[in-house]
Amino acid sequence: MARVPQPLFDTFSRFHELNFLNLSAELPSVREFLAQFPTECQAVDGYLAVRSFLKSYGGNEATFNSYRTHVERLLLWSLMVAKIPLLEMRRSHGEAFIEFCHSPDQNWIGPVVKSRFVRIGGRKKLDTDTYQVNPDWRPFNVTVSKSERKAATESGAELHVAPYSMSQGSKSQVFAVCGSFFQYCIQEGLTEVNPIQSIKQKSKYIQRTIADASGRSLTQLQWDYVIETAELMAAEDPGHERTLFILVTMFSMYLRVSDMVGRDNWVPTMGDIRRDSNGDWFFHVVGKGNKAAKISVKDEYIQVYLSRYRQHLNLSPLPAPFEKTPLVATLKGRAGLSDRHIRLILQEVFDRALERMKEERRTVDEIAQLRAASLHWLRHTSATFDAPFRDMKDLQADLRHEQMSTTQNVYYNSLDEQRAGSMKGLKIRR
After folding, report:
1. Which of 221, 264, 269, 285 is most buried, by CB atoms within 10 Å?
2. What's residue 334's pLDDT?
3. Considering the chain, what is the average pLDDT of its residues?
4. Domain assignment present for 1
5. Residue 289 within any structural domain of the chain
């Protein structure tokens, strides 16, 4: 009987190569793992239910990866810890699983490992390649923040790894994803009970907090260094004109990386930035959930940064309506960049800005957040800067938040500097 859990579902692309009529295309290691459990655990039935659920959410890779994490843990827990059929779980089992997620066994916790299975073969992928379980993979991972890793590297100190602790966001996802799984199974006639949904007092497990964008935002000083660094890079090497353009485009319109990279049914072009009959500029995108939207564009972006980059490409200063020139391309002119490529481009800017701040002897407090900065911080930073000057409904529309409460809680309850400033001059004795 297995004592250490193993992965059961592979990458998004390899998952879709399975034969969903039977287990014929599953890796031998997966079939062997399921076969070792007693018949009464109904391991294969549980596995097929999870696989069917994941297939129903197989249209989006990010959603698939998130759902896979939680329902795979649920299946492994039912087989290895509770030793019951997944589809016979009841409320007491659901509570026990939630408790386990908060404090998993030590042999369920490991370092961050990207690969679940290891490919055995040459450098070039072939149909004859085989895959085996990555022995370092675990369902739960202890993560170390980006800022802590950078600080340890800079100082040469040993990296301190804290005990595993599940974030509030992950706790909420356990309820949402696993609850959705059992609801799916009820609709498919596989079970009659949703043991997650029936848990009372979820507040016992989930602490309600007000979201705070400041924890994922650059300060005004840090942003000044970042954009100045990108401008210096472009002045030194014209190849970095693209770097500056990507940085400012993502910042000025609160974009997600997928808005720059595109989707299966949409690739962003220069023609997607167009002027309406009133003379106002909008960026037309296809966002999360394949929802079409348009984002208002700052005049400075059009007049300074867009025109600058287009002139670098030997194009007219402003795009023509429905122009097909790719929004971003490789340096050789091929349309489109991967999200990983864009992350690497922007990380170089963050790293260089950090070095400039250190060289100019900025204080530890002034530098600290920049160590942790990532691509998505640009969206939060820009929205945080703009919130005091924009109507909440306008900001919500451009951020493409479905709920007004999301915009309000994140960007209008986190203006800490403004709030602190209003307090400074107040007296205790008047």
Report:
1. 285
2. 72
3. 87
4. no
5. yes
Distance CA 382, CA 220 (A): 10
| Residue 294 region by backbone torsions, left for phi larger than 0, else alpha for psi between -120 and 50, else beta | beta
CA distance 400 to 403: 9
Q: How many CB atoms lie within 10 A of CB 428?
A: 4
Give the position of tokens 């990207």: 114
- Please give the pLDDT value at position 152: 66
Give first-to-last CA distance, the chain, whole Å: 74
Between 159 and 84, name the one with better pLDDT: 84
Give the DSSP letter of residue 158.
P
- Asked if residues 261 and 339 have their Cβ atoms less than 8 Å apart, the reply is yes
Pair (198, 306) in one structural domain: no
Give yes or no for a contact between 198 and 92, defined as CB atoms under 8 angstroms apart: no
Judge whether 297 lies within some domain.
yes
Residues 240 and 249: their CA atoms lie apart, in Å, by 14
Residue 128 or 95, more confident: 95
- Measured CA to CA, the distance from residue 71 to residue 334 in angstroms comes to 39
Cβ–Cβ under 8 Å, residues 100 and 89: no
What does the alpha-carbon distance between residue 285 and residue 258 come to, in Å, rounded to a whole number? 10
Q: Say how far apart CA 135 and CA 147 lie, in whole Å.
A: 28
What pairing do the DSSP bridges indicate for beta strands 117-120 and 130-133?
Answer: antiparallel
**Token pair in block for residue 209:** 């907090």
Residue 245 is assigned to a structural domain of this protein: yes
Pairing of strands 140-141, 109-110: parallel
Q: Where are the alpha helices (DSSP H) in 78-202?
A: 91-102, 146-155, 168-187
If one counts the domains in the chain, the total is 2
Q: Which of 177, 171, 194 is nearest to 56 (CA)?
A: 177
187 and 278, same structural domain?
Answer: no
Q: What range defines the domain where residue 248 resides?
A: 215-421
DSSP 263: B
Q: How far apart are CA 223 and CA 214, in angstroms?
A: 13
Pair of tokens at residue 234: 């472009």
Cβ–Cβ under 8 Å, residues 129 and 121: yes
The length of the chain, given as a count of residues: 430
How many CB atoms sit inside 10 A of residue 230's CB?
26
Pair 194, 273 in one domain: no
3-state secondary structure of 176: helix
Angle subtended at Cα 257 by Cα 415 and Cα 305, rounded to the nearest 5 degrees: 80
CATH (domain of 312): 1.10.443.10
